Amino acid sequence: MRRLTLRQLGYACVVLGLVAVSGVSMAQTESATSLREAREAAQARDQQRLMRFLDDQQALESALEEARAEHEEAQQQHDTLAAQQAEQTDQASELSERQAEQGEALSGLLANLARHSSEIRNALGEESLLTLEEGSLPPRLDEVEVLERHQLEDVVDHLAALTARTGRAERLSMPVADASGEVTTREFVRLGNFAAFTESELLERGESDGNLVVLPRTPDAIGGLLANYYQGESNVMALDPTQGSVLEALAQQPSLWERFQQGGYVGYVVVALGVLGMIIGLGQYLYLVLVSLRVKRQRHSLDQLQANNPLGRVLLRFEGMDKHQTPEALEARLDEAVLAELPKLERSQPMVKLLAAIAPLLGLLGTVTGMIVTFQAITVFGTGDPQLMAGGISQALVTTVLGLITAVPLLFVQTALAGRSRYLTHVIEGQASATLADHLESHTPVVN
Fold first, then answer.
1. 435-442, long-range: CB within 8 Å, 24+ apart, which pairs?
2. Which residues contact 236 (CB under 8 A, 6 or more apart)?
3. What local confidence, expressed as pLDDT, does residue 209 receive?
4. Residue 142, SS3?
5. Cα distances (angstroms) measured from residue 255 to each of 217, 258, 260
6. Tens digit of each residue's pLDDT (9 = 90 or more) over 296-337
7. 3 state DSSP class of 325
8. What family is this (predicted)?
9. Closest Cα to residue 270, out of 347, 369, 389?
């Protein structure tokens, strides 16, 4: 075996130490049957690697050069980090000196500005109409350590601009999402932080992205003011001082058609019966008015009897009777003729009266049905969410209202029909009695 130099022995020791450490770690991770066998196997491998390095002088020199290069690179990184640390230390010292120069007054001013700026940003955010323009909010100063002049001016300028917008009416053009979700650039008017609207619709800030969206429903009371104000024809505009709460409540109020639909099938039946009763009642009332006009003309021309009115038909029938009958027989025949005309004059009144009585009962039926729906919702979902019970409660209340609304006009119509028919009956009976009395007086002999 050739003699080893001192340098080679040093390399060998280093490599042997590294290999021994790696051999120990490998021996710990491998699943050998015996610790001794694993150790002997690792020593054998290390011995082979050591002999290979000793035989290959060039590989040993290459490994040493790589180790030196890595050491130099690590030393350069250390020097760079040390320089950065020194620079940051100098900056921290400079900031501390500037803070000390500013004193407590400017430090307190910076703290107040940072607090107010954060409060304004949190309060307005993406919900206020004042922050539609990009960069309209004041900057955050939470991470600023030394107050600069331009920062103070920036915060003051933003606060002044926001304050000015609160009392200004401006015409802007921005993307607006309609009810279907389609976004288009539209022109609108912004009244401070109170309202934003187009010519026919109110706008609000969206919850997801903060963009403007069309209000699902513009109240009718406000919709009539939008066009005139938008076109500059009027200076009157309704504002919501609650920042949208009143508008939201007004928008949720159902229209007459929506209220009618809340009644359900029972409500449809009640309204249908009410419409049917009104048609029947009005038709009969028009017929009675026409008959009244004809009877009035007939009373003024009793010498020319017409068969187009009940009075004329009664008198024509009286003229065709045998006048030699007893007065009682003539009166009975005349009463029969009058009674024959009453069904035409009193028709439709029982039907209208029946419908007027049925309507409230159907409304009560809808009330009971709605309460059943409400109790079923309470049984399934509990009382935590009132919206789940709103449908049944609406049906219970609306059907009752529809029943009463239907019954009241029908009662008026029935009363009008009864009064008109009763008046005609009295006129016919009175005129018939007068005609009979005249006939009896003319054929009764005078007793001296």
1. 435/302, 435/315, 435/318, 435/334, 436/318, 436/327, 436/330, 436/331, 436/334, 439/318, 439/323, 439/330, 440/327, 440/330
2. 225, 228, 229
3. 65
4. coil
5. 11, 5, 8
6. 888 888 778 778 888 778 888 877 776 677 777 777 887 788
7. coil
8. Belongs to the exbB/tolQ family.
9. 369
Question: Tokens for 227?
Answer: 């066009």
Separation between Cα atoms, residue 396 and residue 266, nearest integer Å:
10
| Number of other CB atoms surrounding residue 306 within 10 Å | 14
pLDDT, tens digit (0-9, with 9 covering 90-100), for 44-66? 887 777 676 666 666 667 777 88
| Pick from 421, 427, 423: nearest CA to 287 | 421
- At 406, list the tokens: 């239907």
Secondary structure letter of residue 324 according to DSSP:
T
Place of tokens 């009682």: 328
Which range has the worst mean pLDDT, 121-130, 178-187, 395-404, 415-424? 121-130
Q: What angle do CA 429, 435, 437 make, to 5 degrees?
A: 100
Q: What is the mean pLDDT of the chain?
A: 76
Q: Counting Cβ atoms within 10 Å, is residue 294 exposed (0-12), middle (13-18) or buried (19+)?
A: middle
| Both tokens assigned to 45 | 């491998």
For 230-255, letters b (16+ CB in 10 Å) and e give beeeeeebbebeeebeebeebeeeee
Round to whole Å and give the CA distance between 92 and 90: 5
Residue 29 pLDDT class (50, 70, 90 cuts): very low
Per-residue model confidence (pLDDT) at position 14: 47
265/372 Cα distance (integer angstroms): 15
Question: One-letter amino acid identity for 396?
Answer: A
Average the pLDDT over 1-29 and give the result. 46
Q: How many CB atoms lie within 10 A of CB 395?
A: 24
Whole-angstrom distance, CA of residue 308 vs CA of residue 340 = 15
Q: What is the rounded distance in angstroms from the CA atom of residue 105 to the CA atom of residue 143?
A: 18
Query: Residue 160's Cα: distance from chain center in Å?
Result: 35
What residue type is 339 in one-letter code?
Answer: L
Token pair recorded at residue 233: 């024809």
